Amino acid sequence: MADNVFDAIVIGSGISGGWAAKELTEKGLKTIMLERGRDIPHIKGYVNANKESWEFPHRGGRTQQMIQDYPVLKRDYPLNEVNLDYWVNEKESPYTETQRFDWYRGYHVGGRSLMWGRQSYRFSDLDFEANAKEGVGVDWPIRYKEIAPWYSYAEKFAGISGSRDGFPTLPDGEFQKPMDLNCVEKDVADRIKQQYKGQRIMTIGRVANITEPLPGRSNCQYRNKCWLGCPFGAYFSTQSATLPAAQKTGNLTLRPWSIVTEILYDKDTKRAKGVRILDAQNNKTYDYFAKIIFLNASAINSAWVLMNSATDVWDGGLGSSSGELGHNLMDHHFRLGASGIAEGYDDKYYYGRRPNGIYIPRFQNYGDDKRDYLRGFGYQGSASRQGWNRDVAELTLGGDYKDALSEPGPWTMGITAFGEILPYHENKVTLDKSKKDKWGLPVVNIDASIKDNELKMRKDMTGEAVAMLEAAGLKNVKSFDNTYYMGQGIHEMGTARMGRDPKTSVLNGNNQVWDAPNVYVTDGACMTSAACVNPSLTYMALTARAVNHAVGEMKKLNV
Amino acid sequence: MNRRDAVQRIALLMGGAMIGSTAILTGCKSETGKPTEWTPEDIAYLDEIADTILPTTSTPGAKAAKVGQFMTVMVNDSYEEKDQKVFREGMEKLNEAANDKYDNDFIKLTPQQRTEFLTALDKEAKDYAKNAKEGSDPHYFRMMKELTLLGYFTSEIGSTQARRHVPVPGRFDGCIPYKKGDKAFT
Questions:
Q1: PROSITE patterns recorded for this chain (chain B) (predicted)?
Q2: Contact (Cβ atoms closer than 8 angstroms) between residue A264 and residue A255
Q3: How would you class B107 by CB atoms within 10 Å of its CB: exposed for 0-12, middle for 13-18, buried for 19 or more?
């Protein structure tokens, strides 16, 4: 076999790319995984993982230089001193915005699996059926029962801790033992269950931090420094989980610094034959060939790769024949909710820094519940005792003030809503050839916004947050809304959606590009709707399922 | 700070946005400030201000935690130019006010005088904030106090002596007894 010929090519090394590489190599396929950025080796690449707050000159905060260098990242919390190197260099890789879209990227081995929020929830049939029932977008080509075994498969390997709650909108999975709720959260959970007669629940977050060891990985040590990279391998990332599994097979070639510029399409066979890359370091072009290609560059960049491919056949690129490539961009809208004070717990505290919070699954528009908008939202949050950054009654400075701030403050509890955004054709990414990145490649333009349905939902998100916290006995409950811009959820989805009809979707029910069935897209791009839960677990399940399909087709000589 | 922490912090903070480095909450446009020179006297002076806000008690205070030095780093690197100006002029204003009131430099005041003086200044800063129009400069004493709290409680002393710091907790226990006087965990 020539050194540029493989059985399979995986484009991207984040959550879904890592899964594709693991599954393909474990099924015996010689696979090359192409990553546009640098390598970050497991553990030794996590240079700040063991640093303490006082070892950072600005204690984790941001400098004016950083603010200047990162015009997008600075818009929200991701711009910080402790894991700055994990975020894309915005000067090298710009994009343009017709409407504001905050695009937070990680261009390195592992992608955003290193910095992700790790909340891991299954979609339910409430989600898979919604588009068809409501006449929104197109119907998902799959239902829950088709993906359920793949969720189980993904959960067992990734290691998801959580509790089985038997709640209809949030299917249970194969969980490791759940993390604890703290004293206040426990009581709030009990009161919510009671007040709402089981129609609403509050549970511990289902999170990709392991509470029981897995091969090569320790259980969570409760440092809450996940997004620096975990030296214990305690949360799921490409580095901690899928990459070592793929490497163990001896079938994987990992090539960092490889910007895929196009998928090479063969008009005669109507299949892709390989990919072309630009080496980000030496600027040379290389071609790689394979029977199967998995495109996992993250939703917006996967659309970019497709738009740049097979343009001699389709002006809009590979997968554009439906008119949907780059369209239907989704995210989750949030940054609003409520908080209050829990009285009567002054003699209670907690030990350890739990990298997880509570979850209140969607209860809107389910069963007899009807709202003046479609779909719904869930809440994430936690209770904790306030820290030094608080006001102390009667004291402004001096020894008593210092000693008071050295003790834990009052208990507060806050919840933030995460809501579904509908797929709107007009929310889209396109190629912007007027601007080039460091390598002379055209950039993307993003043009998307939330609309009436989301705005109506947002009113309800704060209203219900206040009502629930008050019902749970919290005092001085106040709502907050810090406004939301698309992208801030860092859950880009939908730009190459799955569907049942090549006229209205880019991918079929097995994640194959209708126009090139040996190209599979299994990252956020494939999502037909967004649901209101964190999406990464669904990418894992869809990827494993798609690889199983691809290898089956290969054996049948169909791809 | 990950998304959950950020969300939580925003949800829980009653005190409002911090200056300069955390423009995250205000979204204000930034201009790069020029680093300014600081003399050892400047740092010693800031140390005394910080140590009046957070003095040595059963645990070392802000001076021991080198908060004066930390303030200069933050003002140089994280403050916008206009805020740097407010801070530098504030250092002079503070000393002038000390001279007006006690006929002496701040650094020469007795501990009791310093406490009395800065307590009054803290009230002035709070009253100023209450009446300030949106977009107007923050009061210099708010800056000093804010940097003192941040600098102290994220320092090694503030983390490991004033509070309890367990680098690798190893487990999470959601409900343990607490009695008044027990220090907070970091």
A1: PROKAR_LIPOPROTEIN (PS51257)
A2: no
A3: middle
Distance, CA of B45 to CA of B91 (rounded, Å): 9
* Placement of tokens 């609309």 in the chain: A451
Candidates 3.40.350.10, 3.50.50.60, 3.40.50.300, 3.30.572.10; CATH matching A1-161+227-325+425-446+491-559: 3.50.50.60
Helix (H), strand (E) at residue A15: helix A15-26
Boundaries of every domain in chain A: 1-161+227-325+425-446+491-559, 164-205+332-420+450-485
- Contacts of residue A341, Cβ cutoff 8 Å, sequence gap at least 6: A410, A411, A412, A474, A475, A476
Which chain B residues are within 8 Å of A419, Cβ to Cβ?
none
A53: contact with B, CB 8 A cutoff: yes
Distances (CA, A) of B131 to A26, A379, B26, B174: 66, 36, 18, 42
Q: What residues have CB less than 8 Å from B100, skipping those under 6 apart?
A: none
pLDDT at B94: 98
- Residue entry with tokens 């008071």: A404
- For domain A164-205+332-420+450-485, give its CATH number from 3.30.410, 3.40.1350, 1.25.40, 3.30.1330: 3.30.410
pLDDT band at A354 (very low <50, low <70, confident <90, very high): very high
Distances (CA, A) of B139 to A229, B50, B74, B81: 39, 16, 16, 15
Strand order in the sheet with A442-447: A96-97, A442-447, A428-436
Fold agreement between A1-161+227-325+425-446+491-559 and A164-205+332-420+450-485? no
Are the beta carbons of B173 and A384 separated by less than 8 Å? Answer: no
Residue pLDDT, tens place only, A223-235: 999 999 999 999 9
Q: Which residue has the tokens 């999406």?
A: A535
Amino acid making up residue A511: N
- Which DSSP letter does residue B182 get? P
Residues constituting chain A: 559
Nearest chain B CA: its distance from A557 CA (Å): 45
Contact A444, A304 (CB under 8 A): yes
Give the helix/strand (H/E) hosting A513: strand A512-513
pLDDT digits (tens, 9 = 90+) for B45-100: 999 999 999 999 999 999 999 999 999 999 999 999 999 999 999 999 999 999 99
Provide the chain A residues 469-528 that lie in CB contact (below 8 A) with chain B.
480, 482, 490
Of A58, A65, A389, the CB nearest to B149: A389
Length reported for chain B: 186
- How would DSSP label each residue in A283-310? --EEEEE-SEEEE-S-HHHHHHHHHTSS
* Residue A355 DSSP code: S
How far is the C-alpha of A74 from the C-alpha of A52, rounded, in Å? 23
Contact present, A406 and A388 (Cβ < 8 Å): yes
